[in-house]
Amino acid sequence: MKHPSQAERDASIVVEVITKRLFPLAAVLAGSLLVPGPALSENVSGQVDPLRAALLVPEDLGSEFARRDYTTKGLLNPAFTRTKACRKAVKSLTAVYRTKVSTALEHTDRWEGISEYLVSGTPRKISALERAAKAMVRSCRKITVKTQGTQEIIRRLSLGRLGDSVYAVKFRSGFPDSDLERDAELATEMMVAIDIALIRVGNTMIVLEHDGHVGAFDPPLTRSAAQTAVMRLQEALPGD
């Protein structure tokens, strides 16, 4: 039997070392392809993406809230296209729905939920969104749409001082003779309610939507959820 030469033995050792190092690495790389979506928010240093960390979680709204698997997109409602000025302002804002940083929470006992989107960028980009949000409130706040069976309105919504600036409207849909201006009447007359708030915090824009259906809507939740969203963002991005 021919014994391997020293060169052959050396080559065999090199192959063995490479094999031992590459197979574990391949396993790690293969495993990374199977990591659930949320884990992708961690960077190479193992730290969580600050924007994702700033998103609302069920505990922020109460024990009766849980995560849901879809977000709402209230600005795509046809009512926002009823006037040219409103349609133009909203068109500049709907890009926020393409952000990869979003979440959705729902009430476990009634048809009510919160959707949140976070958009971060240059001062120029966020200022453009802020101008569009201001134009949206100005141009859409007096829309009323009546049909034989329904009435829809968009009105300005006051949330007080939040972040650097806040712009908000409310959409209400109900029966033709409903008094949709007064949220106190919603329990018996409302079919759909959506509050939409855009809040600037430094170079980040929070888009918060609070929706409810068939009387399942708690108006004060919009303000409290917005306040918590701002607080979480400020804590996550202290230098923003």
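That was protein one. Protein two is written in the same sequence-then-structure order:
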Amino acid sequence: MLTIKAKMPSASLAEIKQLAKGINEIEASLCVNIYLLLEVNQMLLDGDVQNVVAVATDCGVTNKG
């Protein structure tokens, strides 16, 4: 398992979705599970990449892009 910690203070929902897509591609090519800890607008979105996108949506991260 690989853990990625990142801060994206002003990330849009589109940017978070793009990050999740990239992580899914890495997981598929390396056959490794990736755990994402992402801080956006002082909120910690914690968990697998699909849950991070769902939580970002639920928390009202705006789609600026």
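The beta strands are 2-7, 34-40, 43-47. Keep this in mind for the problem set.
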